[in-house]
Amino acid sequence: MVIISGSASRNLAKRIAEALSLPLGNPEISKFSNDELRVRITESKTGHAAIVVQSLSAPVDSHILEFNFICDALHRMGVTDIYPVIPWLAYSKQDKVFRPGEPLSVKVVAKILQVVPMKRLYTFDLHNTAILGFFDIPVTNLTARPLFVEYFRKRISRQTVVVAPDAGAIKISTLFAQELGVPAAYIDKKRDLVTGEVSVSGLSRKVKDAEVILLDDMIVTGGTIRETAKFLKTRGVGTITVAATHHLYVPGAQEAIEASGVDHVVVTDTVEPAVKSDKLHVLSVSGIIAEALSELLN
Ligand code: R5P
């Protein structure tokens, strides 16, 4: 068994390899002069099984193609058992045909990712568990929640309230609040399907002087967090800490979140950190992945 890292997840792959005491391969990734992607596995011996770690962060389509090329190269080298670890599955917000004329994009991406035969895919906090059905192979949908529970358990007080920024986050936020033993509240959020703009119109409980933990699966533009933070401020909130599994580091998003009055942002390394800030704290999912993969080594 060997761990092969795509260019999107070098640090995470290194941590997983160390945790499992497995050799780590970093393929050569370059471009031909005509802009075509070029991939080469440099290990001469790989054995029959490989774990391929590649987050589908920006540049998204290039990282998808790179993943496919790595898997194809391994397949041609005689690796029969390929286990992809895709900590952040891009296109997962495009999980429905929202308006007539649109594709079911994440289903197409699921097919593309499976072009080379593989055994089982490992991913994190999928935006919608219906996406599991778009894959023909088994998928393990891991969660970063235990990391957040451990992190926040030492930091909660009698004022702590977990807030779900939209209807999609209610179930997970309630569970998280129960695990921490604190109350939960829900925001009424709407997003314009054409402009992407977010608006907030209501909140299910009082949050005056509360220490809010805003739990979401991902930060993309930061619009959801920004608008929620602004709304919470109008209700006299004390502090706001954001906890989100995936931070996609869209340029300007972190700065805009901080400008909206958020005190701290706690995320994981499903996407390699691309900004530095005193207000940003990154927890590693490497331990959770290593534990899940250890079943393959027994
Ligand atoms: C929405 O359904 C998701 O759970 C997130 O709230 C959303 O994707 C965050 O995106 P943005 O940062 O662009 O508001």
Describe it.
It holds the Pfam family Pribosyltran_N. Residues 158-246 form the Phosphoribosyltransferase domain. By secondary structure, this protein is an alpha/beta fold. The protein contains eight helices and 15 strands. It has two domains: 2-143 and 287-297, 3-Layer(aba) Sandwich (Rossmann fold), CATH 3.40.50; 145-269, Rossmann fold, CATH 3.40.50. 30% of the residues lie in helices and 27% in strands. The strands form three sheets. The protein has a seven-stranded mixed sheet with strand order 11-10-9-12-13-14-15, sandwiched between helices. Strands 2-1-5-6-7-8 form a six-stranded parallel sheet, with helices on both faces. Strand 5, helix 2 and strand 6 form a beta-alpha-beta unit. Helix 1 (10-20) packs across helix 8 (286-297) and helix 6 runs parallel beside helix 7. The radius of gyration is 20 Å and the shape is globular. The N and C termini lie close together (11 Å). The model has no long low-confidence stretch (mean pLDDT 95). Ribose-5-phosphate (R5P) binds next to strand 12 and helix 6.
Characteristic key phrases:
single chain; 298 residues; alpha/beta; Rossmann fold; seven-stranded mixed β-sheet; six-stranded parallel β-sheet; binds ribose-5-phosphate
